[in-house]
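EI: anyone free to look at a 483-residue chain?
SC: sure, send it
EI:
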Amino acid sequence: MLKRRTLRFVGLVVVTVAAVLMLGCPGRPAGSKLPSASRKLKTEKGTTPFVEIASRAMPWVVNISIENPRAIIPGLKRNPLEQLFHKNVPPQLPEAETRTLGSGVVIDGRGFILTNYHVVREVEGIAVRLADGRLFKHDRVKIVGTDAKSDLAVLKLDGAERLSAAEFGNSDSLRVGDWAIAIGDPFGLTGSVTVGVVSATGRSRLAYPDAPSYQDFIQTDAAINPGNSGGPLLNARGELIGINTSIQSTVQANIGIGFAVPINSARRVAEQLMRKGKVTRGYLGLTLQEITPSLKEALGLGTSDGVMVGSIVKGSPAERAGIKAEDVITYLDSVAVKSVEHLRTTVSELAPGTSITLSILRGAESLSIKVKLAALPESPSPEETKPVEKGIAALGLTVRNLTAAEQKQSGQKYGVKVVQADPTSAAAQAGILVDDIIFELNRRSITDAKRFEAIAKPLEAQTKTVTVQLRRGKTKYSISFTP
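SC: here you go
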């Protein structure tokens, strides 16, 4: 009896608590249903901008392939992405009937496609597939023009009208940390989207086979792989800010270091290719160097902004305009000069005959100098076409000749400047650093980069100790190592 009373009491308590809980919870209107998965997805749509960006940009992106892989011309080198991923593997023809070469971007609704030169170089039978599935083959795909110096090319699709074309952004306004979205066909996986940030701007001196001579890259950690070449890099507004071009990798896989040609540069090249099928470059006729803190101090410069003129080519537009060695160029027209490559690339993309205004600091004086650009000579000397940072490599070191300003700054009348040091080399591990000035190697004077090469190259294979005399700032050092 007691047991039954206890059970009734417990049951009454449970019912009472349940009633209280139901009264405390808001009810769902009559006839309502649990939210479906589609409703949930719809609610989530728009929580990031990337969904809308991908949806809007996907129609701009095309796949560039070759129908018969055996149509690749014998001796064709791998593209930069493949070379970096498969450094020691010789190119082999796949068994498949098609092979993705890379990606491209529709830049004009009349059927103009912008891609990398290395994607379409030395191949026959190119096929272009649009995002809607339409395929253009062979004679319906025309290579309008290519430019190896910037690694860009423009294609034209015959019969393609009113295509959805890319919206252009302003790559000059990019900041480190801005969103970056890459779209392409990595490893043939069509329409892949990756997201990262702008890791850096103005990257140059990338050393890979057939690297373009004009480099002013955007660096991003958005994943870029073989097949992404020629595809778009977008900002958070879905605007085209770059053309994905190459990666840096030591492990045959993407490690978050990819590079893209800034769209402002790519667009200027593309416009020339579309108009006349080739690029004619502007020419100033001077060599440039970055302003380092030590150079700023030694020459008494008031700023580290801009770039410094190292030397002037006789009879060049720069000489005729009155530009002098050790002038500091801070602006080209209204655009701030960020680096040697930035100025060099920008000038090269302007048409010969274009008049530009350079803002220059000459000591304490601020000048505004107008220059009328000439055409870049067909076979200019190396110092006219390359920034002073590039040079000769040996012993794991890349060196170049000293400029007049550096001789004055260091007090060293002869020698070579280290501009790159392979961290895995014995020289670097012994303590030789970038910006060191080497003036003696195994008790033999180093007067210039060619003499350094002549003395250093035979030493690479020997097991005897090599002794280097160098200057670092105002101090001289002696460093020994075994190559």
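EI: The radius of gyration is 30 Å.
SC: 👍
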